[in-house]
TrEMBL record:
Origin species: Desulforhabdus amnigena
Key words, A-Z: Antiviral defense
InterPro entries for this protein: CRISPR_Csm3_endoribonuclease, RAMP_III_fam
Gene Ontology BP, a term: defense response to virus
Protein name: CRISPR type III-associated protein domain-containing protein
Domain CRISPR type III-associated protein per the UniProt entry, residue ranges: 563-705
Superkingdom, taxonomy of origin: Bacteria
PANTHER family associated with the record: CRISPR SYSTEM CMS ENDORIBONUCLEASE CSM3 (PTHR35579), DUF324 DOMAIN-CONTAINING PROTEIN (PTHR35579:SF6)
The keyword Transmembrane is annotated on this UniProt entry: no
Length: 1081
């Protein structure tokens, strides 16, 4: 019996070779066909997944063998399943038979930053890809005992999606679901199941009420690369997704070759694009038509002969001769109308009716509407086009006028792709190495390398770099020379290298096309006086959200990009938190390592928990859900921005935006209860928002609050014998579901279901010093010293404006074009970069990076961090606390602080006109004075750090009723007025006592002092008072996880600010007091 169905990839799948990059291809890899291995065979396959079989060593068995044993406690009957075939359907291939690349990094536990040379990349088959699945079953074996019923429920597990194939199962990869109509039933009673068999699924979701940015590791520009190198025109055209596919294909054929000059190529595109559109429209309008007519010669004969029609009737019907009609019925109606009362004679006339087929052109309005809608043309032009449908030249001329309106947008994408030629230079380096490997393998195949040379690392073949030769030998050190010369293996290895080069080159092209799209391009200034803010001057955002290629029925030829958070990111975040907690409460012991390995796995051993990718509830993210933020480094000496250090971030935010993920655990045993109790604490921490996901954690990104939506527990043990289930859920009612006893909890019942057992801390509850690494810096490996959360309120004292990110909300175009445009800037808000997508009601905020920069500047002065940090073992006080990035590998460390965005609940605003230059205005002796020919006064502390003193608004600043620009020699900004209140939190961990004392002083300052931030600080804008709120607390880790106290307040120790403010730890204290004095306002 052959059972046939379809297997769907619910998540991407990876099944790779030893190099851990390419998905294993069928045969020698030439056709790049892929399938999921049916049976374990050979040597390399013994380490990889297959549906059935057993390796010679017995260490690897088929996944169906494993599932059978897990369910029934016995081996699958010999010969029951004789063959499994699972090949990818043709429609799930890309055009080049290459797929997605999933990349990841390893974070150093001490630095909480990337570990050098520890990243990985894997080619994964598309999520939603479909396989043709066929299983051959031995009928005679199937009829024995309970085999039919048992096989039915084994396949039922696949149908329920509780089946994983390939590598990376615990990191979001490999989950599959089978669709199959079985020709047999399970029988009257289900077979008995092993009481140890069980499966727990915990479904979670989190809304993006906190900004999230999981960065995509592509598009990083290398300025040292040439500004322009050869690029293929086909690649440029493929990125123009608004152009219908048939038009793109013709453009690729016409101008898809190498681009030697971008400007010349743009001219060719401008010329060929309307012409190809014209030809396509003419083809759509060309059709073969069948027409009916009365031939004139035959009509004339009707008036002759013995039974001729009368002269009067002939005069009526002769005008119809040779006139073409669309149907036979139309001719008949016309003849009868002409004959009038003699309509009964129509049959004689219609006897001579003839018809013919001929080609004609009739304007296809539907095809034009499709083109116009996709490209943004004026549909009304259809009337002009219809009149010119017979004339290709005239048609192209009309279309050229329409194309002229949209060409700048396409050329902007071209410029972005050309700029991205400088991106991801590591691909070129890897390809160069791979090409040298190819050269070595070809030399081996041609007999140009002998065995003695193979054994000598000092021998370097001609044309190969010494480093590459040594790396090649090292990567093949376990391969004997005679095995290396095996022609079959060597040829396959050569094809693998060629496929890998094609994968890397092709995927980089795909990423460049995606990054060049308008929605991934930031707004920059240009034009007259550098005042025009447009994407045409922009570049791809420095960081955009993680995405992958997935298959979708709507995608034409190529797959579509889908936003997601990798399971490896979720798993890594949970593991980091678990490691910190266990090392804090129980120490860095063998027991801690054992629990971590059981939960999350180790080399050669899969972890207990399978973490899925996190996918958006709605994959089509609306544009208004993407917000942008600019990060501009400030020069501490001048207080001005360092434009070359500007970074732009495109992040996800919004209460209507949510992600879903799931955790799966199989065969949970009583021995796993201790490890599982750690997981329950992690889920509780995730609920509280204490497990950050993604990047920019120190700027408030990723601290999401997860909610358990559903818990599904199935077990083979009857309820009265389900000891594991009782420990998890107590006495709950189980429903019979096939072979399982099932418990399904939703919403509130699911949230409260898991019992959270206290963690037993070892050691004293006294504050322990922060952990330190071997290099001497304070480590992130555990919690120590002072940790907690500061809740802070900001009060605006003088009008404050940090300008919005992206394009300005208001633009005025003067009559004189030489004056350029005049921009009107709203304050920063949690909004999209495009003005048209911003909501009328803004959520104003102070960006986390701006707050962080403001506090860091004061902390730098207060800690006298004037000396630069030279390496990670010699950090100055500010770099130690706020984080540091040096040069060279492993020379970066994450901050021990995380600043949130400060959101305004209510804020009154007003427009201000700020003329420039304004350096002649000086605030002296409590009043503003205009002193011509003098530069702006500068207040420095210790000759190194500039501070803007507090002052009321200068007289030159004019408050406006609305945005009413009258001169380009001024800035027009909307500012938040005094009295506006905002709130934010600041998380901190592993601080020494002096660090916390200094940090608290730098935030709350002293009575009568205040901060300054934003635009126009010199002229009195931006005074801000920060106040520590009673919700602030220090964390007592032992108490927090003791199971005592209120659920959301356990371990929280109130902070008495008076006890912590210590001016003795503040360097330049008197100078800071004077500079930050806000009494004058």
């Amino acid at each position: 019996m052959i059972l046939k169905g379809k297997l769907f990839a619910e998540s991407p799948i990876y099944r790779g070779n030893a190099r851990k990059t390419l998905f294993t291809r069928d045969g020698d890899g030439t056709q790049r066909l892929v399938s999921l291995a049916g049976e374990i065979e050979g040597t390399a396959e013994a380490l990889m997944d297959a549906f059935i079989g057993r390796s010679r060593s017995g260490k690897n068995t088929g996944l169906l063998n494993q599932l059978w044993f897990r369910l029934y406690g016995s081996s699958i009957p010999e010969g029951l399943i004789t063959k499994v075939h699972c090949s990818l359907q043709e429609k799930s291939y890309s055009r080049d038979h290459l797929f997605d690349i999933r990349m990841g990094i390893k974070l150093n536990e001490d630095r909480w930053a990337a570990e050098a040379n520890a990243n990985y990349k894997m080619e994964t088959l598309y999520k939603n890809a479909a396989f043709d699945f066929a299983m051959t079953v031995n009928d005679s074996v199937l009829k024995r005992d309970e085999n039919r019923s048992r096989l039915f429920f084994v396949l039922q597990e696949l149908k329920e999606g509780r089946f994983w194939f390939g590598a990376g199962k615990s990191k979001g990869l490999g989950r599959c679901r089978l669709e199959m109509e079985l020709p047999f039933s399970p029988g009257e009673s289900p077979p008995s199941v092993s009481p140890q068999a069980n499966h727990l699924t915990i479904s979670l979701s989190f809304k993006l009420e906190t900004p999230v940015l999981v960065g995509w590791p592509w598009g990083k520009i290398d300025p040292s690369k040439p500004a322009f190198a050869a690029i293929d025109g086909r690649q440029l055209i493929e990125a123009m997704r608004d152009i219908p596919q048939p038009i793109r294909k013709r453009l690729e054929t016409t101008i898809g070759g190498p681009v030697l000059s971008p400007e010349n190529w743009k001219k060719k595109f401008s010329e060929f694009f309307p012409r190809i559109l014209a030809v396509w429209l003419m083809e759509q309008s060309s059709r073969e038509e069948e027409t009916w007519f009365l031939p004139s010669a035959a009509v004339e004969k009707l008036g002759k002969g013995k039974y001729a029609l009368s002269q009067k009737l002939m005069e009526r019907i002769l005008p119809l001769a040779d006139r073409h009609f669309q149907s036979k019925e139309a001719v008949e109606a016309a003849v009868k109308q002409e004959l009038g009362a003699k309509a009964n004679m129509a049959k004689r006339v219609l006897d001579v009716l003839a018809h013919e087929r001929k080609k004609g052109k009739r304007f296809d309005s539907e095809a034009w509407s499709q083109i116009a809608e996709g490209l943004g043309f004026d549909r009304a032009s259809g009337d002009r086009l219809a009149g010119a449908i017979q004339d290709e030249t005239a048609l192209a001329s009309i279309l050229s006028q329409e194309c002229a309106k949209i060409l700048p947008g396409f050329f902007q994408q071209v410029d972005q792709q050309i700029r991205l030629i400088q991106s991801d230079s590591w691909i070129d380096e890897e390809i160069a190495v791979r090409e040298e490997h190819l050269h070595i393998k070809n030399m081996l195949r041609e007999g140009k390398i002998e065995e003695w040379q193979w054994l000598s690392p000092d021998y370097t073949p001609q044309g190969i770099r010494s480093s590459t030769w040594k790396e090649f030998l090292e990567s093949h050190q376990r391969v004997q020379f005679r095995h290396m010369l095996n022609s079959k293996n060597l040829n396959k290895s050569i094809i693998n290298d060629k496929n890998l080069i094609a994968l890397l080159e092709g995927y980089r092209d795909h990423t460049r096309q995606e990054l060049s799209q308008p929605y991934n391009t930031d707004f920059r200034s240009g034009g007259v006086s550098n005042r025009e803010i447009s994407r045409k001057y922009g570049k791809p955002y420095d960081t955009v959200f993680m995405r992958m290629l997935s298959w979708a029925p709507s995608a034409q030829e190529q797959s579509m990009w889908e936003i997601y958070i990798p399971g490896s990111t979720v798993k890594g975040a949970f593991r980091k938190r678990a490691s910190q907690l266990l090392k804090t409460l129980r120490g860095d012991s063998a027991g801690t390592t054992s629990i971590l390995n059981r939960l999350f796995g180790e080399q050669g051993q899969r972890g207990l928990v399978y973490f899925s990718d996190a996918y958006l509830t709605d994959a089509l993210v609306p544009g208004r859900s993407w917000c942008s933020m600019d990060g501009v480094k400030m020069d501490p000496a001048t207080g001005g921005p360092t434009e070359e250090a500007k970074a732009d971030y495109l992040f996800a935010f919004g209460k209507d935006l949510s992600f879903n993920l799931r955790l799966d655990i199989q065969n949970l045993s009583e021995q796993d209860m201790e490890a599982f109790s750690i997981l329950t604490h992690l889920l509780e921490d995730f609920r509280k928002g204490d497990i950050p996901l993604g990047g920019e954690k120190t700027c408030g990104f990723g601290w999401v609050k997860g909610t358990i939506r559903n818990i599904h527990w199935i077990t083979g043990a009857p309820p009265q014998e389900d000891s594991v289930g009782k420990k998890l859920f107590g006495k709950q009612t189980h429903a019979r579901d096939g072979i399982w006893y099932s418990l399904n909890l939703k919403d509130e019942a699911a949230k409260e279901a898991l019992h959270i057992a206290p963690l037993a801390p070892k050691g004293k509850k006294d504050v322990q010093p922060p952990p330190r690494s071997k290099q001497g810096f304070i480590s992130h490996s555990a919690f120590g010293g002072y940790c907690g959360v500061l809740s802070i309120q900001g009060e605006v004292l003088t009008p404050l404006s940090i300008k919005e990110s992206g394009e300005p909300s208001f633009v005025h175009v003067p009559d004189d074009p030489l004056e350029g445009v005049i921009n009107g800037w709203e304050p920063f808000s949690m909004s999209p970069p495009e003005a048209s997508l911003r909501a009328p009601s803004r959520l104003y905020a102070l960006p986390s990076k701006s707050i962080r920069g403001m506090i860091r500047h004061i902390y730098t002065i207060a800690s006298d961090s004037s000396k630069a940090s030279h390496d990670i073992s010699r950090l100055n006080p500010t770099d130690s606390l706020f984080g540091w990035v040096g040069s060279g590998p492993n020379q970066a460390i994450m901050a021990r602080l995380s600043f949130d965005f400060a959101l305004f609940k209510k804020a009154e605003t007003a427009w201000f006109k700020v003329p420039y230059p304004y350096g002649m205005w000086h605030y002296v002796d409590g009043q503003w004075k205009k002193i011509p020919k003098q530069q702006a006064s500068v207040l420095h502390i210790a000759g190194s750090w500039r501070i803007f003193p507090h002052a009321p608004l200068a007289p030159c600043v004019i408050k406006l009723d609305d945005f009413k620009p009258d001169t380009p020699r001024a800035d027009y900004i909307k500012a938040i007025l005094p009295g506006g209140l905002c709130r934010f939190t600041l998380r901190f961990w592993n601080l020494e006592k002096e660090e916390l004392q200094r940090l608290l002083w730098c935030i709350a300052l002293e009575q009568g002092l205040a901060h300054k931030m934003g635009k126009g600080r010199y002229l009195g804008f931006g005074s801000l008072r920060l106040k520590l709120l009673p919700e602030s607390f220090l964390t007592d880790w032992a108490d927090r996880y003791s199971g005592k106290g209120k659920r959301d307040q356990a371990g929280q120790l109130p902070i008495s600010l008076e006890e912590w403010i210590n001016p003795k730890v503040i360097h330049h204290h008197s100078e800071l007091r004077k500079a930050l004095d806000a009494q004058r306002i």
